[in-house]
Amino acid sequence: MKERVFTVRNKAGIHCRPSSVILNTINKEFPYHTFCVETSDGQETELNSILTLISLGLTVGTKAVLKVEGPDEEKAIQRIGDLFENEFDFPPR
Questions:
Q1: Rounded to an integer, what distance in angstroms lies between the CA atom of residue 30 and that of residue 91?
Q2: Element at 77 (helix H, strand E)
Q3: Which residue, of 40, 46, 50, 69, has the fewest CB within 10 Å?
Q4: How far is C-alpha 91 from the geometric centre of its chain's CA atoms?
Q5: What's the 3-state SS for 50-69?
Q6: DSSP state letter for 36
C-alpha cells in the first residue's frame, strides 16, 4: 500500500466536477486498485462514488492522506494525488 499526503488547491474545494474527474480517472486508468482518503480528523473513506468523495468536505487548504492498493500503486498514487492538488478551471478556458 502506498500513501501520499496532499493539499487541496482548488479554490472551491473538491465539489461535484473535480470529484467526477477524479472518479472517472480512477475507473478508467486504475480499475484494479483500491483508493481511500483519510482526513485529519480520522475519517477514512473508500473512493468508490462521487458522493463518498464529496461527503469528505475537502475545502481549499485541506490536507489529507491518499492511500492506494493495487498492481501499479506508484503510478496510481502519483496520478490521483496530482488530481487532488490540481486547480480545476470549470469551464476550461
A1: 26
A2: helix 73-84
A3: 40
A4: 20
A5: HHHHHCCCCCCCCEEEEEEE
A6: E
